[in-house]
Amino acid sequence: MALINQATKELHVKIVYYGPAKSGKTTNLEKVHSNVQTPYGKGQLVSLATNADRTLFFDFYPIEATVIKGFKTKFQLFTVPGQVIYNKTRQLVLRGVDGIVFVADSQYDKMPENVESFQNMEENLKEMNLNPDEIPYVLQYNKRDLTEIAPVDFMEYLVNNRQVQVPAFEASASQCQGVFETLNAITRLLLQKFLNPVAHRQS
Amino acid sequence: MIPELNHEDMETFDRVLGCFLARSGADAALLVERAGYLIRQRGQLPDCDPVQIATLAANAFAATELMTSLLHEPDFCGMYQEGATISTLTLNIDASCLLFVAFPSHAGAGAVRYFATETLEALAAQLQSASTRGGKGIDLATLNPRDARDLFRGD
To answer: What angle do CA B64, B62, A86 make, to 5 degrees?
Structure first.
């Protein structure tokens, strides 16, 4: 969970990009890293990947901002490996998570994987004694620039079909479309959680 | 869960870590939260970002801890990496924090670990004290979550 350091006036929060394999989680971080405007200097993007550029453990990108007067907020952005066999690794990366971006692949044939990954995320949170209803998350429907994609309504039905819907964003991460909108949305939800721990999901 | 930290905590961490470096001959000591946050650093790492090192150490520790539990070794408390010139030791402090140490390889892990014992206890005691004390939280009076709508911008 978030770390508050009154001595250094810093707030540390951890955001994890979750989703099925090859849905664009790493691409999101790469685009944030290469395009973000920040007065604090760009940190380095760390990727623990295979030779084929598939995430093996996680990608990590630290980024700073001042959202609360007098406090520097340090966001730690992580991705998890999407492949099913890496479930234990995903659990490790989820440790201490404050907010989640679920990156879904918009291609029709990826819908079963989206649903499976979303269910896996809920299971992993529960296994780590985290209540999925108390962890702020947003959805990103990525790869909207491709053909053979599912309508947004259908994707909403699959992964955002709840009493309280969460914010969802269409994106083409490879073209940096929707990347910053998604990041800002999860940031806003996180801050609302600090303001109102009960009602943060209703924004 | 990591407690809220204040000046007293930081001063204690600085003193304890500084004393450890002086006695052990280690190059750098990092107090790291298990989710990967760098809390405090004393000494210098050679030309690398300590934030990255902290995150990698925390996750490597978590992975190795899981591996040892699968091997039915429940008392995992440390991880040693032997380098040609610089070696590292990552040690468990408590449920929330780790101590990462970088030291000259010729110094030997045993000596560093020996001097780390008291350090781990002192750090754990201060973290326990912080937990007991509780925190004052963040003054959110000036916070407007809508401000975060355009917090991060691309080129």
So the answer is: 85
